Amino acid sequence: MVSKKKLQFKAKLLYNKREKGSFFRLKILAPAIAASCLPGQFVTLRLTDGCQPLLRRPFSIHRISGSGVEILYELVGRGTQILSQKRPGEYLDIIGPLGNGFNYPLSAIRYPLSILVAGGMGVAPLLFLAERLAYSVERRAHSKGRLYAKRYPLNAFVLIGAKNKNQILCEKEFRKFGCTVKIATDDGSKGYKGKVTQLLQHLLSTIDHRLSTIYGCGPRPMLKEISRICQRRNLAAQLSLEEHMACGIGACLGCAVDTKEGYKTVCKDGPVFDADRIIWEAE
Amino acid sequence: MKLSVNIGKLKLKNPVMVASGTFGYAGEFAGFIDINKLGAIVTKTITLKPRPGNPAPRTCETPAGMLNAIGLENPGADAFLKEKLPALNKIGIPVIASIAAETPGELKEIINLLNDAQVNAIELNLSCPNVKSLQSTISGSPLIAQDAQATHNWVRAVRKATRKTIIAKLSPNVADIAEIALAAQRAGADAVSLINTITAMSIDTKTRRPVLANITGGLSGPAVRPVAVRMVWEAYQKIKVPIIGMGGIMDVQSALEFFIAGASAINIGTANFINPRASIEIISGLKQYLKENKIKDINNLIGSLRT
């Protein structure tokens, strides 16, 4: 889905706090972005006025609350280190909303079952998606002329994979939106011991998945595996990709992804792509 | 106060342009700035046939700069003329088409196409460091712009084929930039663009692999600025045609360095990625600088270095 309007402005940081371990959550006041953005879209932040780091950093939109845009991020390098030290009240140069998000309302109607697969930080845009999916079934319930006293139950599974239990994020939030959450950890410290894609295989072999759409966000090998699984079962999947980005707006052509239609940009044509369009590199 | 400058037959209302490859075909920036405030637009390099470009990763950040190895991804001359140029012309400022070719035959064909098109000038990209098939076969130098004779031959071929303003985009990966600039001037270039990116590489020490799939790429951004300023100054002392200066210009202070060193105009490149409004902010910054220093004409600033 596309929201065409692009905005650049100085936005006030409302909070910026450690979630757990090396994970942080911040909220920035950006009413125009909050009003128009869609799940799967992203923003870029300029972290300093100087040249270290030089380039803007892209971040998935994690949640919208009121006029604020929330970002979930992991401390991984110099850029996120600088970001983690920003204090509420400071202003950050923000551009957004950028890219094409998940194509969810269509899918929610045609494919009433949603399966969200997150690897590590991949939960960031998927929580926003889960919220909108929950909202869209609620609205559909109304549009049929029947009013439900309770929220129409969201038929969605969320599979979260991480190295260990300390790196599992947003479990409670997903449950709050009515999703069935399943966890996989590499070390077995929580949930299934193994890869989240194995958990997906297992789930697909135990449920009637014919009318489902799979949404994935996480490391490239995980997305490639989801793509393979979905191809074999003839399922539609939408994957949010990552690539080194310089501009974030489709000008530099740096964030190339190879597709059946030739190279596309992750920032402008993506970051969400239909899994069956992507040409994955050989092992 | 006069900000206008002449580059060959081209009259620019102000000397601030956007550099090839950093502004797409302008559409991406329409939401951010009034593009018609710019002096001109230099397009992403166009080749006769479409080019897919290089595999990813194509970019990475380096200290105060970035590497790129896009590989001249472009839709080809026909698609450019049909799909991109009409919208560019609507903006109402000069359009400079950046071009590259693999053979003299291709070069002639693309020039013929552009001769009939509404482009105001041609920037001949003799210096893309990321495309092997475009490299010089004449001299054994990897890039055309690394060899004075090859530079002369290519600019000459374009001069014979067009009456439009020709700008030769040169490479910093040379021992003597003035010699190459002089060869371009002698062959009939109306101006030279200095500098393209510096060939460079970055290594991921965990995997011991190059960060870029192409192994090497072109370095741009503030890290290259002192090299670019030095090269503009060296060329300015030897050539008569105007110099278009570029290399890590981020703000009005860095822009001024180029004018003082001898550039008649500037290109804003990497800065567009970091701040889409950089070029517009630099134009107003230049106006303010001229006003504060009681300089009536920007041409009086060009090459005004005190040594």
Put the structure in a nutshell:
With 283 residues, chain A is of the alpha/beta class. Helix content of chain A is 25%, strand content 33%. In chain A, a hairpin with a 2-residue loop joins strand 1 and strand 2.
Q: What do you see in this structure?
A:
The complex is a heterodimer of chains A (283) and B (307). Chain A is of the alpha/beta class. In chain A, 25% of the residues lie in helices and 33% in strands. Chain A has helices spanning 31-36, 78-84, 104-110, 123-143, 171-176, 196-206, 220-233, and strands spanning 7-20, 23-29, 42-46, 57-60, 63-65, 68-74, 91-98, 113-119, 156-162, 180-185, 192-193, 212-217, 236-240, 256-259, 262-265, 272-274. In chain A, the strands form three sheets. Chain A has a seven-stranded antiparallel β-sheet. Chain A has a seven-stranded mixed β-sheet with strand order 11-10-9-8-12-13-16, sandwiched between helices. In chain A, helix 6 runs parallel beside helix 7 (220-233). The longest helix of chain A has 21 residues, at 123-143. The radius of gyration of chain A is 18 Å and the shape is globular. The mean pLDDT of chain A is 89. By secondary structure, chain B is an alpha/beta fold. Chain B has one domain (5-300): TIM Barrel, CATH 3.20.20.70. Chain B has helices spanning 77-91, 104-115, 148-161, 177-186, 225-236, 252-261, 271-274, 278-292, and strands at residues 5-7, 10-12, 16-18, 40-42, 59-62, 65-68, 95-99, 121-125, 165-169, 191-194, 198-201, 203-204, 209-210, 216-220, 243-245, 265-268. In chain B, the strands form four sheets. In chain B, strands 3-4-7-8-9-10-15-16 form an eight-stranded parallel barrel, surrounded by six helices. In chain B, strands 5-6-14-11 form a four-stranded antiparallel β-sheet, with no helix packed on it. The mean pLDDT of chain B is 94. The chains are: A alpha/beta (283), B alpha/beta (307).
- Total DSSP E strands of chain A: 16
Taken in chain order, the helices and strands of chain B follow as EEEEEEHEHEHEHEEEEEHEHEHH
Average the pLDDT over all residues of chain A and give the rounded result: 89
Rg of chain A, nearest Å: 18 Å
The domain tally of chain B reads 1
**Would you tell me the overall average pLDDT of chain B?**
94
For the terminal residues of chain A, how far apart are their CA atoms?
31 Å
Could you please say which CATH topology of chain B applies here? Answer: TIM Barrel
Span between termini of chain B? 26 Å
Element order, helices and strands of chain A?
EEHEEEEHEHEHEHEEHEHEEEE
Helix content of chain A: 25-40%
**Percentage of β-strand residues of chain B:** 15-25%
Strand order of the largest sheet of chain A: 4-3-7-1-2-6-5
Low-confidence runs of chain A: none
CATH class of chain B: Alpha Beta
Query: How many alpha or pi helices of chain A?
Result: 7
Order of neighbouring strands in the sheet with most strands of chain B: 3-4-7-8-9-10-15-16
**Structural class label of chain B:** alpha/beta
Instruction: Give the low-confidence spans of chain B.
Output: none
The fraction of residues in strands of chain A falls at 25-35%
Largest interface: A-B, 34 and 37 residues
